[in-house]
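Reopening: C-alpha coordinates for the zinc ion complex, inputs below.
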Amino acid sequence: MFSFEDYKEIIKYAKDKGNCMGYHEALGKDEFTIMRHDVEYSVERAYELSKVELEMDFTSTFFFQLTNNSYNVLSRKNMAMIREMHKEGQTIGLHYALNGLTDMDIIRKEIVRDIGIMSEMLGFEINTFSIHRPIKEVLAENIKLPGIINAYQDDFFTFGENITDETPVDVKYMSDANHIWRYGYPTEANIKNNKKVQILTHPFAWTPEGYDNMDNYKSLIEEKESELIDSIDGECKDFKEYREYFVDKAIYRGF
Ligand SMILES: [Zn+2]
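Re-run output (same inputs, fresh job):
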Protein backbone atom coordinates (compact mmCIF):
# COMPACT_ATOMS: atom_id res chain seq x y z
CA MET A 1 0.00 0.00 0.00
CA PHE A 2 3.01 2.33 0.27
CA SER A 3 4.94 1.50 -2.89
CA PHE A 4 5.84 3.98 -5.60
CA GLU A 5 3.37 2.16 -7.88
CA ASP A 6 0.60 2.80 -5.35
CA TYR A 7 1.63 6.43 -5.14
CA LYS A 8 1.53 6.75 -8.94
CA GLU A 9 -2.08 5.53 -8.86
CA ILE A 10 -2.99 8.37 -6.48
CA ILE A 11 -1.25 10.92 -8.72
CA LYS A 12 -3.10 9.53 -11.71
CA TYR A 13 -6.50 10.01 -10.01
CA ALA A 14 -5.50 13.52 -8.97
CA LYS A 15 -4.32 14.41 -12.47
CA ASP A 16 -7.46 12.94 -14.06
CA LYS A 17 -9.57 15.21 -11.88
CA GLY A 18 -7.80 18.14 -13.50
CA ASN A 19 -7.73 20.68 -10.69
CA CYS A 20 -4.36 20.01 -9.00
CA MET A 21 -2.61 23.14 -7.78
CA GLY A 22 -0.54 24.60 -4.96
CA TYR A 23 -1.82 26.48 -1.93
CA HIS A 24 -1.36 30.03 -3.21
CA GLU A 25 -3.15 29.26 -6.47
CA ALA A 26 -5.95 27.43 -4.66
CA LEU A 27 -6.71 30.31 -2.28
CA GLY A 28 -10.30 31.44 -2.87
CA LYS A 29 -11.06 28.74 -5.48
CA ASP A 30 -14.21 26.63 -5.36
CA GLU A 31 -12.37 23.47 -6.17
CA PHE A 32 -8.83 22.16 -5.95
CA THR A 33 -6.74 19.09 -5.26
CA ILE A 34 -3.62 19.80 -3.23
CA MET A 35 -0.88 17.25 -2.68
CA ARG A 36 1.23 17.91 0.39
CA HIS A 37 4.20 16.13 1.95
CA ASP A 38 5.43 16.60 5.51
CA VAL A 39 9.05 15.47 5.63
CA GLU A 40 10.13 13.54 8.73
CA TYR A 41 13.44 11.68 9.29
CA SER A 42 14.80 11.71 5.75
CA VAL A 43 15.35 14.32 3.05
CA GLU A 44 16.48 11.52 0.67
CA ARG A 45 13.08 9.87 0.79
CA ALA A 46 11.38 13.18 -0.02
CA TYR A 47 13.80 13.62 -2.92
CA GLU A 48 13.00 10.12 -4.23
CA LEU A 49 9.25 10.70 -3.99
CA SER A 50 9.68 14.01 -5.78
CA LYS A 51 11.36 12.15 -8.65
CA VAL A 52 8.34 9.84 -8.92
CA GLU A 53 6.09 12.90 -9.26
CA LEU A 54 8.34 14.63 -11.78
CA GLU A 55 8.43 11.48 -13.95
CA MET A 56 4.65 11.86 -14.16
CA ASP A 57 4.86 15.56 -14.89
CA PHE A 58 3.33 16.34 -11.51
CA THR A 59 4.43 18.73 -8.76
CA SER A 60 3.32 19.35 -5.19
CA THR A 61 4.42 20.97 -1.91
CA PHE A 62 7.14 19.50 0.33
CA PHE A 63 7.39 20.82 3.89
CA PHE A 64 10.76 20.45 5.66
CA GLN A 65 11.54 20.85 9.35
CA LEU A 66 14.19 23.25 10.55
CA THR A 67 14.46 21.73 14.04
CA ASN A 68 14.30 18.02 13.22
CA ASN A 69 16.54 15.71 15.22
CA SER A 70 17.06 13.16 12.42
CA TYR A 71 18.02 15.39 9.51
CA ASN A 72 19.65 18.75 9.05
CA VAL A 73 17.79 20.71 6.40
CA LEU A 74 20.74 23.14 6.22
CA SER A 75 23.43 20.53 5.48
CA ARG A 76 25.14 20.98 2.13
CA LYS A 77 23.88 17.67 0.78
CA ASN A 78 20.29 18.22 1.88
CA MET A 79 20.18 21.80 0.64
CA ALA A 80 21.45 20.62 -2.76
CA MET A 81 18.61 18.10 -3.01
CA ILE A 82 15.98 20.64 -1.90
CA ARG A 83 17.28 23.30 -4.32
CA GLU A 84 17.12 20.78 -7.14
CA MET A 85 13.54 19.88 -6.21
CA HIS A 86 12.65 23.58 -6.21
CA LYS A 87 14.34 24.12 -9.56
CA GLU A 88 12.32 21.28 -11.04
CA GLY A 89 9.06 22.90 -10.00
CA GLN A 90 8.32 21.58 -6.53
CA THR A 91 7.09 24.05 -3.92
CA ILE A 92 9.16 24.03 -0.73
CA GLY A 93 7.64 24.98 2.61
CA LEU A 94 8.42 24.97 6.33
CA HIS A 95 7.19 22.06 8.46
CA TYR A 96 7.07 23.90 11.75
CA ALA A 97 7.48 21.86 14.95
CA LEU A 98 5.91 23.40 18.03
CA ASN A 99 8.57 21.86 20.29
CA GLY A 100 6.21 22.23 23.23
CA LEU A 101 5.21 25.85 22.64
CA THR A 102 1.60 26.87 23.25
CA ASP A 103 1.84 30.69 23.22
CA MET A 104 0.25 31.70 19.91
CA ASP A 105 2.14 35.02 19.64
CA ILE A 106 5.49 33.26 20.02
CA ILE A 107 4.42 30.55 17.58
CA ARG A 108 3.49 33.17 14.95
CA LYS A 109 6.82 34.96 15.40
CA GLU A 110 8.79 31.72 15.20
CA ILE A 111 7.06 30.67 11.98
CA VAL A 112 7.97 34.00 10.34
CA ARG A 113 11.53 33.75 11.73
CA ASP A 114 12.03 30.15 10.52
CA ILE A 115 10.61 30.92 7.08
CA GLY A 116 13.13 33.79 6.87
CA ILE A 117 16.04 31.52 7.85
CA MET A 118 15.05 28.81 5.35
CA SER A 119 14.49 31.33 2.55
CA GLU A 120 17.86 32.95 3.12
CA MET A 121 19.79 29.68 3.38
CA LEU A 122 18.11 28.02 0.40
CA GLY A 123 18.20 31.15 -1.75
CA PHE A 124 14.56 31.32 -2.79
CA GLU A 125 11.38 32.60 -1.20
CA ILE A 126 9.41 30.30 1.08
CA ASN A 127 5.86 31.39 1.88
CA THR A 128 3.99 28.27 2.95
CA PHE A 129 4.08 26.24 6.15
CA SER A 130 2.46 23.23 7.79
CA ILE A 131 2.58 22.37 11.47
CA HIS A 132 4.17 19.18 12.75
CA ARG A 133 1.82 17.27 15.08
CA PRO A 134 -0.51 20.24 15.57
CA ILE A 135 -2.34 20.41 18.87
CA LYS A 136 -6.04 21.24 18.55
CA GLU A 137 -5.56 24.71 20.06
CA VAL A 138 -3.22 25.58 17.16
CA LEU A 139 -5.66 24.20 14.58
CA ALA A 140 -8.49 26.18 16.19
CA GLU A 141 -6.30 29.32 16.12
CA ASN A 142 -6.43 29.18 12.28
CA ILE A 143 -3.13 31.08 11.96
CA LYS A 144 -3.07 33.42 8.96
CA LEU A 145 0.01 35.53 8.27
CA PRO A 146 0.49 38.25 5.65
CA GLY A 147 1.79 36.71 2.42
CA ILE A 148 2.24 33.33 4.09
CA ILE A 149 -0.09 30.35 3.78
CA ASN A 150 -0.84 27.82 6.50
CA ALA A 151 -1.72 24.35 5.14
CA TYR A 152 -4.17 24.07 8.07
CA GLN A 153 -5.92 27.42 7.58
CA ASP A 154 -9.67 27.14 7.03
CA ASP A 155 -9.38 27.51 3.24
CA PHE A 156 -7.61 24.15 3.07
CA PHE A 157 -8.61 22.28 6.19
CA THR A 158 -11.92 21.83 7.99
CA PHE A 159 -11.25 21.86 11.70
CA GLY A 160 -13.60 20.01 13.99
CA GLU A 161 -13.35 17.55 16.80
CA ASN A 162 -14.23 13.90 16.21
CA ILE A 163 -14.21 14.15 12.42
CA THR A 164 -14.31 10.73 10.74
CA ASP A 165 -14.29 9.83 7.06
CA GLU A 166 -18.13 9.93 7.18
CA THR A 167 -18.39 13.52 8.45
CA PRO A 168 -19.46 16.02 5.75
CA VAL A 169 -16.70 18.62 5.46
CA ASP A 170 -15.85 21.55 3.19
CA VAL A 171 -12.38 20.19 2.44
CA LYS A 172 -11.82 16.44 2.14
CA TYR A 173 -8.55 15.78 3.96
CA MET A 174 -6.75 12.46 3.69
CA SER A 175 -3.53 11.72 5.58
CA ASP A 176 -1.27 8.66 5.77
CA ALA A 177 -0.05 9.28 9.35
CA ASN A 178 1.47 6.15 10.94
CA HIS A 179 0.79 4.05 7.84
CA ILE A 180 -2.94 4.46 8.40
CA TRP A 181 -5.29 6.48 6.19
CA ARG A 182 -7.46 7.79 8.99
CA TYR A 183 -9.83 9.94 6.95
CA GLY A 184 -10.17 7.62 3.98
CA TYR A 185 -7.80 6.38 1.28
CA PRO A 186 -7.25 8.66 -1.73
CA THR A 187 -9.22 6.41 -4.04
CA GLU A 188 -10.48 7.61 -7.38
CA ALA A 189 -13.94 8.18 -5.82
CA ASN A 190 -12.64 10.06 -2.78
CA ILE A 191 -10.62 12.38 -5.01
CA LYS A 192 -13.22 12.88 -7.75
CA ASN A 193 -16.34 13.17 -5.61
CA ASN A 194 -15.03 16.04 -3.49
CA LYS A 195 -14.56 19.54 -4.85
CA LYS A 196 -11.85 20.51 -2.38
CA VAL A 197 -9.25 17.91 -1.54
CA GLN A 198 -6.02 18.03 0.44
CA ILE A 199 -3.88 14.88 0.52
CA LEU A 200 -1.02 14.61 3.02
CA THR A 201 1.67 11.97 2.72
CA HIS A 202 4.86 11.47 4.72
CA PRO A 203 7.62 10.58 2.23
CA PHE A 204 9.54 8.40 4.72
CA ALA A 205 6.64 5.94 4.56
CA TRP A 206 6.96 5.45 0.78
CA THR A 207 9.54 3.23 -0.91
CA PRO A 208 9.89 1.57 -4.33
CA GLU A 209 8.93 -1.76 -2.71
CA GLY A 210 6.13 -0.56 -0.42
CA TYR A 211 6.91 -1.98 3.01
CA ASP A 212 4.58 -2.53 5.91
CA ASN A 213 5.15 -0.26 8.92
CA MET A 214 7.74 -2.46 10.66
CA ASP A 215 9.83 -3.23 7.56
CA ASN A 216 9.65 0.41 6.54
CA TYR A 217 11.19 1.48 9.83
CA LYS A 218 13.87 -1.20 9.38
CA SER A 219 14.79 0.06 5.94
CA LEU A 220 14.78 3.67 7.16
CA ILE A 221 17.11 2.85 10.07
CA GLU A 222 19.46 1.04 7.65
CA GLU A 223 19.55 4.09 5.43
CA LYS A 224 20.29 6.41 8.31
CA GLU A 225 23.08 4.09 9.48
CA SER A 226 24.57 4.15 6.01
CA GLU A 227 24.36 7.93 6.04
CA LEU A 228 26.23 8.10 9.35
CA ILE A 229 28.91 5.68 8.09
CA ASP A 230 29.38 7.88 5.01
CA SER A 231 29.52 11.00 7.18
CA ILE A 232 32.23 9.57 9.46
CA ASP A 233 34.12 8.26 6.41
CA GLY A 234 34.02 11.73 4.88
CA GLU A 235 35.45 13.34 8.04
CA CYS A 236 38.04 10.84 9.29
CA LYS A 237 40.78 9.35 7.16
CA ASP A 238 41.47 6.52 9.61
CA PHE A 239 37.85 5.34 9.54
CA LYS A 240 38.48 3.43 6.30
CA GLU A 241 40.11 0.55 8.15
CA TYR A 242 36.97 0.11 10.31
CA ARG A 243 34.50 0.78 7.57
CA GLU A 244 34.65 -2.78 6.24
CA TYR A 245 33.61 -4.08 9.63
CA PHE A 246 30.40 -2.05 9.63
CA VAL A 247 29.68 -2.86 6.01
CA ASP A 248 30.23 -6.59 6.67
CA LYS A 249 27.85 -6.39 9.59
CA ALA A 250 25.29 -5.95 6.83
CA ILE A 251 23.93 -2.80 8.32
CA TYR A 252 25.33 -0.89 5.37
CA ARG A 253 22.93 -0.56 2.50
CA GLY A 254 24.20 2.45 0.62
CA PHE A 255 22.06 4.61 -1.63
ZN1 LIG B 1 5.13 16.22 10.82
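The radius of gyration is 19 Å. The pocket of zinc ion is lined by residues 38, 40, 95, 132-133 (CB under 6 Å). Marking as resolved unless the reporter disagrees.
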